[in-house]
């Protein structure tokens, strides 16, 4: 609608210009036939008027042409912004039906041993641990007098614990030979090759009370023991305790006391529920 009105106005101005030019030509011919100073000045004035009229007509035509060019370029850009099937990019994205995956529908990620150990330690930086029944297959000092056997399954767990904790071992023995036998078995099993375990951190005593005294002096975050009496005595002083006991028995009389059948079983299982 606006283009048709502008076209009519332009045609009207062009007709007026032609008529105006025709009149000016007639007037110029009259002045040429009657040459004098006044007629020459009038002729110059008409010439200036003709020039201004011509500039006005040209300027009124340019905006219309520029407007047509803008309309054409806008339509070209609009076509270029559409996809091959004629849809806009935003429409294509919204109609694609793709949604980000929802974590709650994905299966839980299985944790590796090192991650489970760190979660179970819960920030603990020092641990004390009994040898008999935890690290050794033997469960009493009498058996240690004859032989010492390190559990094959405990090595990997101990290695991960030493990455986060300063680990000390302690045990009640009946003679010095039992202590030497225990150190030799640990060395042959390669426990001292990990870097976190050293012989100077293996302590021996002659009574259960002596083991409790070692633990209190070291002030660990964790203590691992098989004797429920020692666990009970230390419950007021130790942040966390792990009681290693036969399957089915439990001594968890306090929130900071945990129970398991073995050290490796407790530190290799993690409930993510």
Strand order of the largest sheet: 3-2-1-4-5-6
What is the average per-residue confidence, as pLDDT, rounded to a whole number?
Answer: 78
| Subunit organisation of the chains | single chain
Strand portion: 5-15%
Give the radius of gyration: 50 Å
- Detail the poorly predicted runs: 80-84, 91-96, 102-107
Number of strands: 6
Helical amount: 40-55%
Give the overall shape, derived from the CA principal axes: rod-shaped
**Count of discrete alpha- or pi-helical segments spanning 4 or more residues:** 10
Order of helices and strands: HHHHEHHEHEHEHEEH
Assign the structural class, choosing from mainly alpha, mainly beta, alpha/beta, alpha+beta, or little secondary structure: alpha/beta
**Terminal residue distance:** 70 Å
List keywords for this structure.
273 residues; alpha/beta; six-stranded parallel sheet; 52% helix
Task: Provide a brief overview of the structure.
The protein has helices at residues 2-33, 37-80, 89-95, 113-121, 141-144, 155-164, 176-188, 208-218, 228-234, 263-266, and strands at 126-130, 166-172, 202-205, 222-225, 240-244, 257-260. It has 273 residues and is of the alpha/beta class. The protein has a 6-stranded parallel sheet with strand order 3-2-1-4-5-6, with helices on both faces.
Polypeptide structure, described:
With 273 residues, the protein is an alpha/beta fold. 52% of the residues lie in helices and 11% in strands. The model is unreliable at 80-84, 91-96 and 102-107 (pLDDT under 50). The longest helix has 44 residues, at 37-80. The radius of gyration is 50 Å and the shape is rod-shaped.
């Amino acid at each position: 609608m606006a283009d048709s009105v502008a076209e009519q106005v332009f045609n009207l101005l062009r007709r007026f210009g032609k008529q105006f030019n025709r009149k000016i030509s007639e007037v110029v011919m009259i002045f040429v036939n009657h040459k004098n100073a006044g007629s020459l000045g009038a002729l110059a004035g008409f010439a200036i008027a003709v020039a201004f009229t011509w500039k006005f007509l040209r300027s009124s035509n340019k905006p219309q042409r520029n407007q047509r060019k803008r309309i054409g370029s806008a339509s070209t850009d609009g076509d270029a912004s559409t996809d091959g099937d004629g849809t806009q990019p935003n429409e294509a994205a919204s109609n694609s039906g793709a949604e980000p995956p929802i974590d709650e529908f994905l299966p839980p990620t299985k944790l590796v041993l090192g991650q489970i150990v760190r979660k179970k330690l819960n920030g603990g930086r020092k641990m004390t641990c009994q040898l008999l029944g935890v690290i050794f297959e033997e469960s009493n000092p009498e058996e240690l007098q004859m032989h010492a056997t390190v559990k094959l399954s405990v090595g990997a767990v101990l290695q991960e614990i030493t990455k986060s904790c300063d680990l000390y071992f302690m045990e009640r023995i009946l003679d010095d030979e039992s202590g030497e036998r225990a150190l030799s078995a640990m060395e042959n099993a390669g426990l001292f090759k990990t870097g976190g375990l050293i012989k100077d951190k293996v302590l021996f005593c002659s009574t259960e009370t002596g083991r409790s005294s070692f633990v209190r002096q070291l002030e660990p975050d964790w203590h691992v023991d098989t004797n429920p009496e020692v666990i009970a005595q230390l419950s007021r002083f130790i942040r966390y305790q792990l009681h290693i006991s036969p399957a089915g028995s439990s001594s968890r009389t306090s929130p900071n006391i945990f129970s398991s059948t073995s050290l490796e079983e407790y530190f290799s299982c993690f409930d993510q529920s």
